[in-house]
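Duplicate of #3305? Posting structure anyway:
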């Protein structure tokens, strides 16, 4: 089943518009929500350390639920903040970015998960593109992490490649983490859509698509005939 909570992308009465204005609104909202959420988490931890408050099993279970809920809410806020930063990408600040360095950086950030899962990531010599290095690192890291969370039946394999296409570079991220049905190929880009239990809460692939679109490209998903997922996106040549 697919559960979707839409995120506004256009101006409505009393709501911020798109682009930089919506980005600022979301970042401010995240900042204001983190304060009380942090307070809840800290006091739950303090109660848990208090022997008198933690004697009963019911109290321990309630505190565990509070901490778990706070952690989940914090993860959602992180996702919204990432989405806001993607909306704020400024094309006037783009510069040539070597994508092979970006992919190595993403693998470095995920090194612990890669070792634990035994997954292999391979890639061709990747080109330079014109863009925002920080957001492209975020894009690469999320696509690899998504495959790691989904897992593979016979050892996860992720393959990244690129080919020139009409003044752009077409990137392909192929994995064997299980395919998707036709309905999910587009729904997976909807903010807060939950297609499987291991999916990270938050905008997720919607953020990836926003990053690509702010670079003047487009992004879509395909189901690989061999039982995997294919994500393709275009970026301007650097």
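Output from current build:
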């Amino acid at each position: 089943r697919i559960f979707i909570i839409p995120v506004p992308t256009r101006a409505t009465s009393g709501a911020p518009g798109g682009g930089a204005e919506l980005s600022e609104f979301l970042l401010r909202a995240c900042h204001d929500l983190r304060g009380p959420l942090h307070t809840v988490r800290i006091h739950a931890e303090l109660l848990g350390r208090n022997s008198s408050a933690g004697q009963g099993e019911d109290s321990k279970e309630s505190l565990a639920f509070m901490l778990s809920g706070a952690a989940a809410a914090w993860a959602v806020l992180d996702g919204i903040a990432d989405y806001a930063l993607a909306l704020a990408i400024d094309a006037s600040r783009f510069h040539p970015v070597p994508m092979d360095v970006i992919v190595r950086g993403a693998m470095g950030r995920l090194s612990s998960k890669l070792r634990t899962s035994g997954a292999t990531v391979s890639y061709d010599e990747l080109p330079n593109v014109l863009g925002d290095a920080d957001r492209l690192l975020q894009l690469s890291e999320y696509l690899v992490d998504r495959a790691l969370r989904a897992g593979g039946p016979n050892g996860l394999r992720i393959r990244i490649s690129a080919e020139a296409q009409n003044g752009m570079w077409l990137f392909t991220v192929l994995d064997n983490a299980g395919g998707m049905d036709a309905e999910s190929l587009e729904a997976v880009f909807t903010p807060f859509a939950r297609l499987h239990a291991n999916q990270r809460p938050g905008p997720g692939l919607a953020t990836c698509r926003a990053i690509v679109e702010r670079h003047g490209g487009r992004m879509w998903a395909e189901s690989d005939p061999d039982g995997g997922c294919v994500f393709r996106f275009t970026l301007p040549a650097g």
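Confirmed duplicate; merging threads. The first helix runs from residue 19 to 49. The radius of gyration is 20 Å.
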